[in-house]
Design goal:
single chain; mainly beta; 8-stranded mixed β-sheet; 3 helices; 2% helix; carbohydrate metabolism; Ig-like_fold; FN3_sf
Amino acid sequence: MLLVGAVTVLRSTSEGPEPVRQGPRQTEPRQLERFSTSGAILPVAQAPPAAVSVLSVEPGPRQLLLRWGDSLSDGVVPPGAAGYEVRWGKGKALEHTRLVSRSLVQIGGLDNGAEYRVEVRTVDAFGQRSAPVGGSGRPEPYPLREPWSYVDAFDDPRTIADNWRLNQRGSCGTAMPGGGEEAGQLVIVGNCGNEPATLRPRTPFRLAQTPQRNGELGRAIVETDGPGTAQQFTIDLVPGPADLVLGTVKEVEGSTKPTEAVEDQSLPPGTVRLRATAFGDSGAAQLLVPPGTPRSATVIDRRSVPATLPPMPISVRQRWEVVVYADRVEVLRDKQPVAAANIVVNWREATVLLGFTGRGSGQTRSTVDLVGFLGAPTAPPQPSVQPRLNWSQDDRREPLERPVNGRQLDQYSGGQLRFTLLSRGTVRLEQMTVRVGTVRVPVRMAVPGTEIVTGVGFPVVADLPKDALVVTGDLNTLNVVVEYEGPLEVMQAGIEVFPEPGARVEPPATQSSRPLVRRTPPLLAEPRAELLDASARPLVPGKTLTPGRVVLAVELDGPAAQVAAGELAPLAGLEVLVDNERVARLPTAEQGPGVAGRWRFGLSTTELPFGPHTVEVRAIGVNPSTPPAQAFVSFLLGPA
């Protein structure tokens, strides 16, 4: 299915830092006025922020990567910076504007070979701008220099349905060619909570029979912004026909040992997993393997990889490489080693699974720019159109019967059903069958020797003969029943069908459709609020306050909102309410929309009655259609 992503851009018609209009043309931007009651004291703007010292512009395929400040090896955050305003355009015009919180921005959807001018201004907590720092660059096609055994740079949207499959528990994700700023990328959109949407190339990853001089057998390469937008990004090398491997080992910040492989009993035998995790102020890379994985005598120097990684860049492509050697597995990020372990693989072919795990709630949107393999020759199988699966579970073995109005898919020689099952107790796989029309077939492990662990998903397959491929309806629906009497849940089901040699594969007369998944509009930075005493010291939790003065500390977290939307909505200002009564309003758009920041308000509690009270902080957007962001803090007031 082809879906063009809708990209929201901020626009300004002049060269100066005027307020940004966003949304319908008839929509006037909000302009807040400074306000305070007699008991409230508002913060006051200081000198404008400093400009960035150096701006680096790096060209890429239909992209420019901008770096400044602390994203450069010798750079620093400009004094007074709460965020940044990035403007760009073709030639001399600066047609587009984006507000961001970090000093690393990727601009996409550009024309290769065209000259683009860019400009960055520092923005402080009150919307004051620094002087601009400019640069220019020309996007250029990706130089595919490696001796690829397989590579897909997603330049042709027509090949995506042929070569890729997306799997998840339920129907919580989509994979589609990007449009606009995401043109030339594969876009993965998921609303799967804490579970992954998993992308699978139909092309197998194959290792060379003879290692290179350095011992390398092959490597899987993925360029994606996944680790910066998903809570967890994984690359699995599974020696069998698996569609989804969930994993049970969860990473805790600071627990990573990048020169050791952590054992995860939920991984099928022989599987190697790279897990890249994004935390607030850091990232991590870790290799995971199932128990019993062979290890070599090679000693990995702990100094060869960093103990922690910098924060994962937001909406910026990174190159991840899982390199398999005869005596170890290494992981590179942007050509730099970040993890390694003395793992020895005992297979020559594996299925590659790319997992994008959400942050618990809301939409996760990740992009993939390139997937490539180095190693033994390999290629995708012949294109096929998957039947639509209508699957169910039954603890009875019903009689076999041909579907009413069923049609044989003569262009296919057979197929393979792929399930991920979850055990709730003892499971005897030899007693499980799958009923498809007039055919009943057994189920086997996708990877022989996989241990069935209660509460853990495991992949299985069922091989279908040609006679089983009898479909109904305009969508080519294949009815499948998993027959088993026992504590079992089918978490995911997929199918691969195998065309007859030389067969012409046509899509169904009517193709299923899904609602368009639009790009998440820019969001306001999330506020956090804390009450301090009159000396600006944190209050003792649960302690009753006496009438007097308190300090309200407010911070807007830009990176969290930028992860969700890729950019920040323009900020008009803040409002403070006590028990639903407005006591303060602070504009943050003195020279243009605000981005984020830190502020301290003085509040008086002398006029409040004894008892519980609630302070609410609202971040208000320039665009009236932007929902406010809120934070609450409560306190109890009592006698002295």
